[in-house]
Design goal:
With 150 residues, the protein is α+β, with helices and mostly antiparallel strands. It has a single domain, classed as Roll (Thiol Ester Dehydrase, Chain A). Helices cover 29% and strands 34% of the residues.
C-alpha cells in the first residue's frame, strides 16, 4: 500500500464505441459504471485492496445502497473523461463518494453521488470500518473536502 495521496484523485477514462447507443453518445447506464470504476480505483489506492479481493480474500463487500446521477453534457466515442473522486462522508459502516466527471476537452459531463456500506459477506450484515481502512479513508475525506488554493 502506498502513502496517502496529497491531492484529489482523478481517474482517467476514454469513452469506448461499445459504451454508446445508436445516437452515438454514451448509453446512460454506462455513466454509473464509470462512477463506480472511479470509486473502486480510489478505494484500492487508499486501502490497498480492490473490491474483488476485498470480497474474496477478506469476506467483506461494499454494495451500493444509493446512487444519484446528474447529467450535464453528452460524451461520445473517443472523448477523454477526468473523474475527480471525493469522499463526502464516512460513518460507522457507510462511505459516500462524490464523482465529478469532466470532459478533458473542457466542460462538465456528469456528477454522481454513491453511497456504499461495508458488509461481512458471510452474514450479509453491515460491519464497522476496520481501523486501518477508517484512518486512510478519513484522511482522504479531509483532503478531498479542502477548498483548492487559488
Amino acid at each position: 500500500m502506498t502513502g496517502l495521496p496529497r491531492r484529489l484523485y482523478v481517474h482517467r477514462r476514454v469513452v469506448a464505441w461499445g459504451d454508446c447507443d445508436p445516437a452515438r453518445i454514451v448509453y446512460t447506464p454506462k455513466f454509473l459504471d464509470y462512477a463506480l470504476e472511479a470509486a473502486e480505483a480510489l478505494f484500492a489506492r487508499l486501502v490497498g485492496v480492490d473490491w474483488y479481493r476485498l470480497n474474496l480474500e477478506r469476506g467483506q463487500g461494499q454494495p451500493l445502497v444509493h446512487a444519484d446521477l446528474d447529467f450535464v453534457s453528452a460524451a461520445r466515442p473517443g472523448d477523454r473523461l477526468l473523474l475527480a473522486v471525493r469522499i463526502a462522508a464516512l460513518s460507522r459502516a457507510t462511505l459516500t463518494y462524490r464523482v465529478e466527471a469532466r470532459l478533458a476537452k473542457g466542460g462538465r459531463c456528469f456528477d454522481a453521488t454513491l453511497v456504499s456500506v461495508l458488509i461481512d459477506t458471510r452474514r450479509f450484515k453491515s460491519i464497522s470500518w476496520p481501523k486501518d481502512y477508517r484512518r486512510r479513508l478519513a484522511a482522504y475525506a479531509a483532503l478531498s473536502q479542502r477548498k483548492p488554493r487559488r
